[in-house]
Design brief:
3 domains; alpha/beta; about 35% helix; Nucleotidyltransferase, domain 5; 21 helices
């Protein structure tokens, strides 16, 4: 049985395909379109998934959409009626987007040559947050777990708590739009001068440069409830009926979320290009602290209510790796699973898993620790491209390749590393990465200034061989998707300054030999030469989606200051 999952006409649109519950392929549309957070119909991702599965659309049994317009219908009606006297661009936007969802049958028909009548019976709608819950629980190794989905908003819900057991998910409670941890974080992200959709990670990276001196003041925005949920003081935010999320250009454009009360209490918002002051850094630290406070409140009450020791988390706020790294320490949960695509791209995977397990009641699939579900290219395809472009290269066998690249990293050099399948999710995990020596104190500034062309305060991640995690980090855990930040041992921080953030932490990726054999071999070769089982890893891009093809990798290499490009076994040097 084939199930094709979609996140369509929503930010980070994507597609994923399963055969008998096994994930065959998953990809974000932005990788093909080269536009960040692409929010249209994921036609290229669909074609890719069908190609990888070796089938055509008529062979798909179910097409799942991670959205359900009927969800919380009466809650929506009540919201509209209570705001009937107000200007309501939000309602207009949602109605327009609903029409696009209805058009999916037409878009799939145009893509496949099938009739809409043939496609319609295959389509199953799975509510946004239930899809998030499924993307985490059904991909986890747990037979039973508590589950949390938390993000900006989806299907009129912003937070949902549940339990999972076997192939079933039981929703316990939820928070309605507009009360939202995600929208709170985004509002302050905008206020701090980061206006683009998806800029929240910049505030998370800035936070360690400040102190949470405004935490008590910001905490007053929320009222935490004994149930484990929360509400807020709406005066700090824009009128919810005036929120505008525009997908016209297929790039999400979000209207201003912070309200007059935030400006009155904290002063004028930071303008584009304005210097980051200590006050801005302190505000970032305070916003991060309040976000963590709410997450821990929800999780602690959820653990008390369920008595469970395992927890799974998804949703945009689940991308907050700083908070994730503290969950086991700050709650009574003992084990935590977060998928590689915890954000909205994971809706495609989650909706398919929800239908396969919860609705069709199939037995549980194996846990997913492998995010390599995207594009792949052979050495022969790569050589053909390089020859057409007239690019000089050498092709090395694996053993020689790993030593050669390790030596370049030690020089020190910066290496573009393109191997195997692309990763599903927002983080490069050694398939589409830029690599450097973590011991080089200048590596961070060099990468930020000459390659990534981004803010200097943003950290770079350490990829570490699984067997050595306890030697370098204060907490030992499997972190395959770079989803948690842990403190680096004090005695090791001077040894790896390029991946040690200002607060002594690192967003680690534990590299496992059976999951990432080539990346593991390269890091191990670097370890043999230096004694350090770590490489600095950042995504292979320059203010664009992560590269998807050898041609895109070559273009990025040529317009930046990388020293070496490795495309599978083909090596290009300046």
């Amino acid at each position: 049985m084939f199930i094709l999952g979609l996140n369509a006409h929503h930010a980070d649109s994507s597609a994923a395909i399963f055969k008998d519950g096994i994930l065959l392929a998953a990809a974000e549309e932005e990788r093909f379109r080269r536009i960040k957070h692409w929010a249209g119909f994921p036609s290229e991702a669909v074609k890719f998934c069908l190609h990888e599965a070796g089938i055509r659309l008529h062979e798909v049994d179910h097409i799942t959409i991670g959205r359900d317009a009927k969800a919380k219908f009466w809650n929506k009606v009540k919201f509209v009626l209570s705001n009937a006297h107000k200007k309501n661009p939000l309602l207009v936007d949602r109605l327009k987007n609903s029409k696009k969802i209805i058009s999916i049958e037409n878009e799939l028909a145009a893509l496949s040559g099938l009739s809409e009548r043939d496609i319609k019976p295959k389509i199953v709608y799975a509510e946004h947050h239930r899809s998030h819950l499924a993307s985490a629980f059904f991909a986890s190794p747990f037979e039973e777990a508590a589950i949390l989905s938390v993000d900006g908003s989806g299907d009129f819900t912003t937070t949902m708590i549940a339990t999972g057991k076997g192939n079933q998910i039981t929703v316990l409670d939820s928070v309605d739009f507009p009360v939202s941890v995600g929208l709170f974080y985004t509002a302050f992200t905008q206020y701090l001068g980061f206006p683009h959709y998806g800029d929240e990670y910049k505030v998370m990276g800035l936070a360690p440069y400040g102190q949470p001196v405004y935490q008590d003041q910001i905490s007053k925005i929320f009222q935490l409830r004994p149930s484990g949920l929360f509400t807020w003081d709406a005066g700090y935010f824009s009128n919810p009926t005036e929120i505008k999320l525009d997908y016209t250009t297929h790039t999400p454009q979000l209207s201003t979320l912070y309200g007059k009360k935030i400006v009155d209490e904290f002063g004028p918002p930071r303008q584009a290009g304005e210097e980051l002051t200590q006050k801005h850094k302190n505000l970032a630290a305070s916003v991060q602290a309040v976000c963590e406070e709410i997450i821990f409140h929800v999780l602690n009450r959820l653990q008390t209510r369920t008595g469970l020791k395992n927890v799974c988390i998804a949703g945009g706020v689940a991308q907050n790796s700083v908070a994730n790294g503290k969950i086991v320490e700050r709650t009574k949960f003992e084990k935590l699973y977060i998928p590689s695509a915890g954000h909205d791209a994971g809706i495609s995977m989650g909706s398919a898993l929800y239908v396969h397990h919860h609705i069709l009641k199939n037995k549980r699939s194996p846990p997913i620790y492998n995010a390599y579900t995207g594009s792949r290219f052979s050495n022969e395809e790569i050589e053909q491209l390089l020859q057409q472009k007239g690019v000089s290269y050498k092709r090395l066998e694996d053993d020689r390749l790993y030593e050669y690249v390790a030596n370049k990293l030690i020089e020190p050099g910066v290496v573009g590393w393109f191997t195997g399948r692309a990763e599903f999710g927002p983080r490069a995990l050694g398939g589409r990465s830029i690599l450097a020596d973590p011991r080089n104190p200048r590596a961070k500034d060099l990468l930020n200034a000459k390659i990534k062309r981004r803010e200097s305060f943003r950290p770079f991640a350490p990829s570490i061989l699984k067997e050595y995690v306890a030697d370098y980090f204060e907490k030992a855990d499997d972190v395959p998707f770079m989803e948690k930040v842990f403190p680096i041992r004090k005695e090791k921080r001077e040894q790896i300054p390029a991946v040690t953030h200002v607060d002594g932490t690192g967003r680690l990726q534990t590299v496992m030999k059976d999951i990432s054999p080539r990346y593991y071999a390269l890091i191990d070769q670097f370890r043999k030469k230096t004694g350090v089982p770590i490489l600095l890893n950042t995504s292979f891009n320059e203010n664009e989606p992560i590269v998807n093809t050898p041609a895109e990798a070559l273009d990025c290499f040529l317009r930046t200051h990388m020293d070496m490009l490795v495309l599978e076994n083909c090596v290009i040097e300046r």
